[in-house]
Design brief:
The complex is a heterodimer of chains A (about 230) and B (about 250).
Chain A: H1 6-39, H2 43-57, H3 60-70, H4 76-82, H5 93-119, H6 122-129, H7 134-145, H8 147-162, H9 166-172, H10 182-191, H11 195-226
Chain B: H1 2-22, E1 27-33, H2 37-51, E2 54-60, H3 62-70, E3 77-79, H4 84-91, E4 101-106, E5 108-112, H5 121-126, E6 132-135, H6 141-152, H7 156-159, E7 163-166, H8 169-177, E8 183-187, E9 198-201, E10 210-216, H9 224-234, H10 236-244
Parallel strand pairs in B: 1-2, 1-3, 6-7, 6-8
Antiparallel strand pairs in B: 3-10, 4-10, 5-8, 5-9
The chains are: A mainly alpha (about 230), B alpha/beta (about 250).
């Protein structure tokens, strides 16, 4: 594997970095959100859940188009970028993180929400009768019980970010080391008829995807055994 | 009763199939390099008005189409943005030998939405901008021409960190249009609308001519619509449209 050109490794690392940062942010954002969605009885909770799920249905070009406009100098992204003297968040690693967080959000929120919902009210009520504060009950009862949901969410969020393409193509600008992630690098190699490099990357992605899905299945199987 | 119903249905379908294949008009799928989008639409409309054949257009980068055609994409005609890829398709045995010809010579332009920002090569040398959009140079000739221009002016290495790449000319245009990049190298043909701002038509001495060749693919040889589309592309009628969009015709540069 050391025979690969350095630009290829750069894309691999960039992708891993993007996916890792996105996953961490998503876990932080998705946990309270999923908790609220699982417990709330407000009718607009489902409306929020639907908004989060939108990227599942919308083509990445829709999100890409909106992001290109909102990240740009005439949108909020431009105002944020101007804080450190930039013009736009498009074509930046930070812009990709924002896009990936939105794009992969449903893949993290959904499993965690389901895991929280599956716990039901009873364990939390029991914790309350044992004088556990809601905060304590959340950390010591809900989170440990929802562990498979967190694992699934993290794996899916990471994998989906690795696999995103349309969005990155639209807002990335194909900059090596900043926005040229694996999927775009493969696209580039195919367009340039450099099939050898395309083959290596594409093959690697297939192995990666296989490992992810297998891991997911094993997690689900194990959690099914643990929770009779 | 049921039997006679299905017989009638079958008869109706048969009639429909027969009449639709008997129609004099044929259809052809044409792969068009993205810089030629607007022109191709207008030519296809004129082509339909004249011959009643229909040219169904697909737009993308030349590199993408080349790869797709080598993998059996259902196109009969290919309007590339360069002359190398049509030649390669002939060598690959996928296109009709001798059918490739230059339908247009493209012009590169540096464009910004901001009036007064683009003045000429001094704008590039001063480099007082954050992002410069170009088209992916490995996939599209307008990108390669942009790189060639910057290398000729000996500013490529200095500008490299500021370059962002679009996958097609259309995307590079969008980067500038949305203001995400202050300026960009695009095809002159993209600036025939009401676009404001400032532009610099890059002098031809700074880059090798972008000879855009068309080629009849082997799949198109038996297709009347495909062969007449290629013929129509050479007609005075089509050439007027091509020139209107800022292209130079072969033998006139």
């Amino acid at each position: 594997m050391s025979g690969l050109p350095p630009e290829l490794w750069q894309s691999v690392w960039l992708t891993v970095e993007l996916a890792a940062i996105t996953t961490v942010i998503l876990l932080v954002v998705a946990t309270p959100l999923a908790w609220w969605l699982a417990r709330s009885k407000a009718c607009w909770a489902e409306a929020i859940a639907t908004v989060i799920a939108l990227p599942l249905v919308l083509p990445p070009t829709v999100l890409g188009f909106y992001l290109l406009v909102t990240l740009g100098p005439n949108g909020p992204g431009g105002s944020i970028a101007s804080l450190w003297g930039g013009r736009t968040l498009a074509f930046t690693f930070e812009g990709l993180v924002i896009g990936s967080v939105l794009y992969s959000m449903p893949f993290v929120v959904q499993p965690i929400r389901n895991a929280f919902a599956a716990i039901g009210d009873r364990p939390l009520e029991v914790a309350a009768t044992l004088r556990a504060s809601p905060r304590r009950a959340f950390w010591t009862v809900a989170v440990p019980q929802a562990r498979p949901g967190f694992l699934t969410g993290a794996v899916l969020g990471f994998a989906h970010t690795v696999g995103e393409f349309g969005l990155v193509l639209m807002i990335g600008g194909n900059i090596p080391g900043q926005t040229k992630v694996l999927s775009v690098a493969i696209f580039d190699y195919v367009e340039a008829s450099r099939w050898h490099e395309a083959n290596i990357l594409a093959g690697g992605m297939v192995i990666f995807a296989f490992a992810v899905i297998l891991t997911m299945t094993l997690i689900e199987k194990r959690s099914a055994v643990v929770r009779p | 009763m049921r039997f006679s119903k299905s017989v009638r249905l079958a008869a109706a379908i048969a009639t429909w199939v027969l009449t639709s294949t008997n129609l004099p008009a044929a259809q052809t799928n044409v792969a068009v390099a993205a810089n030629f989008t607007e022109v191709a639409k207008e030519i296809a409309a004129a082509f339909k008005a004249k011959t009643s054949h229909e040219a169904v257009l697909s737009f993308g980068s030349s590199g993408q189409f080349y790869t797709q055609i080598t993998q059996g994409a259902p196109f009969q005609v290919f309007l590339s943005a360069d002359d190398a890829r049509p030649k390669k398709l002939v060598d690959d045995g996928l296109a009709v030998p001798g059918s490739n010809f230059t339908y247009a010579i493209g012009k590169l332009v540096l464009w910004s939405k901001t009036p007064g920002l683009v003045k000429g090569e001094e704008t590039l040398k001063a480099a007082s901008f954050a992002k410069l959009a170009i088209i992916n140079p490995v996939a599209a000739p307008y990108g390669a021409a942009a790189v060639e221009t910057m290398k000729f002016l000996k500013i490529y290495d200095a500008l490299k960190p500021k370059i962002v790449e679009g996958a097609t000319v259309v995307q590079a245009f969008q980067f500038v249009e949305t203001g995400n990049a202050e300026l960009g190298f695009i095809a002159l043909s993209q600036l025939t609308g009401p676009e404001t701002g400032s532009r610099w038509l890059v002098p031809q001495e700074l880059y090798s001519p972008i000879r855009q060749d068309a080629v009849l693919l082997k799949t198109g040889a038996p297709n009347e619509a495909a062969t007449s589309f290629i013929a129509f592309l050479r007609s005075p009628e089509a050439r007027v449209i091509i020139e209107k969009y800022g292209y130079v015709l072969d033998g006139q540069s």
